[in-house]
Amino acid sequence: MTDVLKGVRVIELGTMITAPLAGMMLADLGADVIKIEHPQGGDPFRSFRGGQYSPHFVAYNRGKRSMQLDLRNAAAREIFQKLLGRADILIENYRVGVMERLGLGTDVLAATNPRLIHCSITGFGASGPYCSRPAYDSVGARAQRDRKPPPRSRASANLRPDHTR
After folding, report:
1. Chunked in runs of 10, what are the mean pLDDT values of the chain (165 residues)?
2. Which residues are within 8 A (CB) of 111 and not within 5 positions of it... i.e. 6 or more apart?
3. Domains of the chain, residue spans
4. How many CB atoms lie within 10 A of CB 147?
5. Stated pTM of the model
6. Which residues, 6 or more positions from 11, have their beta carbon under 8 angstroms from its beta carbon?
């Protein structure tokens, strides 16, 4: 891989696939990615199907450094904020409201590092009826399957694109 992102520091607060995959891609391009994990067990994918380094965890977390911090603890949040002060990007895939409950809402992040790029990955967006639900691929597939198509008007039901132009 090339080092087009050499010198870019990324802090990742991610579990399972979405944020770790995004962090892995940035690491593959040369970014310095620091994955923050909870001291009790870390990323659930770490011990998926037994062991400390499951194949899934290794696949999505290659090229990263790792650090354990319990962000519910004030001293750990202070360490985290020091890391953020020297970071370029924060990637997290927590459910909506978790960062605020940890005392790390948008206002705190902006005050800590005004140039920080904050990438928040959610399954159902930041608002709406499902915004607080956790999401994994199987949840999204089920939601898509159960989704009712929007009603079609009679006039548009028989329209076909004209591919002759």
Report:
1. 91 90 96 94 76 80 94 96 97 92 96 97 84 67 60 46 47
2. none
3. 9-145
4. 8
5. 0.79
6. 33, 34, 36, 80, 83, 84, 87, 89, 90, 91
d(CA 139, CA 62): 26
Q: Kindly give, in sequence order, each residue whose CB lies less than 8 Å from that of residue 10, ignoring residues fewer than 6 positions away.
A: 23, 26, 27, 31, 32, 33, 34, 87, 88, 89, 90, 91
47 and 39 Cβ atoms separated by less than 8 Å = no
Q: Rounded CA gap, 134 and 132, in Å?
A: 7
- CA–CA–CA angle 152, 156, 159 (5° rounding): 135
Give CA–CA dist 66/12, Å, rounded.
9
CATH C-level class of 9-145: alpha beta
CA 42 to chain CA centroid, nearest Å: 15
